[in-house]
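re: that complex we talked abt at group meeting.

here r the seqs, copy pasted straight from the sheet so there may be weird spacing, ignore it
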Amino acid sequence: MSAQENKTGLPLVHLGITRPEELSALFADLRGRFNADCACALDESSWKQFRDTWLGRKSGVLAQITDNWLKPATPELKRAVGQQLNELRAHVESQIESRRAAIETGTEETARDRVDLSLPGVIRPVGSRHLVRQVFQEIEDIFFSIGFSVVDGPEIETPYYNFEALNIPEFHPVRDDMDTFYLDLPKGAPTLLLLRTHTSPMQIRTMEKQKPPVRVIVPGKVYRRDNPDATHSFAFHQIEGLAVDTDITFCDFTGTIEYFVKQFFGPSVKTRFRPSYFPFTEPSVEFDVSCPFCAGTGTAASGGTCSKCKGAAWIELFGAGMVDPAVYGFVNYDPKKVSGFAFGIGIDRLAMLKYGIDDIQVFFQNDVRFLRQFP
Ligand code: PHE
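got the structure back, here u go
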């Protein structure tokens, strides 16, 4: 029981009050306590309890004042106690009523909703795009500028799109180069499913949907069974490119690639291509760029061997080629009428080269100390 409650339980003489002037402080205390109680009555049940504490007929605070202070008061005090009590009662009754009305109309804010404007603000760290996404964007912008558009494809593919329609039949040895993740499917599933090993399946899906001219790039994640080390990861990123039309030549192909490489690494780099092999391109090439870090000399500025190209002066960039006519057969294009080129750029490698990163794993670890370096 609080001191206040205790006080209303005792006659005034026991509180040492004999003169009317001494009453003001006593009633002011009570009013303060009432106001504090009132602020805590936030819902119907706490309001009822609050009302009973103050207005309860037998033991409410006002009833106690009447019984213990007013009734036994000396004639000298009686008038003043009566007057102060009436003032307090008027205040109590009107406040209790308006609190009830506020709770009823739902305008009463709950303690949880109340805003404490003195609290310091919440500072939320602002994220940034991952470096891989930034490099995607950079490359997309370059190809947008020459009329390519972006398409997206599924990461779970059928062997038909990932292999067969790309001219890689079931027992073709290049399948061995793409150690593949197959999904565990229930017995009797209509087809095998796998995580795409490259973005090339989207060449097929795009040509199935669209007649030439086709000019698309396909950014995305690809998967191969690889043991993680500084240059290998079982998940990585590629951008596929495909251009098919009635008059696309090998010159359009090399010109496009050269434009891209110069935009990406700077105008002074040179490109070269070497013969290569992909079942879905013919001829196939491997594109190299003159090492942008030693200006194609193989020698670092400090004198030693360039650490980026290991002294080779050239850096292997990506695979590409003219679309193999056999592929057109899978998408109902007439190989006599159309021609085109395709390329598959490994994004992680390109990002590592451009930004001097020596471990591919940092792309996947999401350590903010790494991410913050590329805001
Ligand atoms: N899909 C090939 C790979 O992942 C790259 C490529 C794409 C080559 C398009 C030629 C044309 O290795």
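couple things i noticed - The first strand starts at residue 149 and ends at 150. Strands lie at 149-150, 156-157, 194-195, 214-223, 235-245, 271-278, 281-290, 314-323, 339-346.
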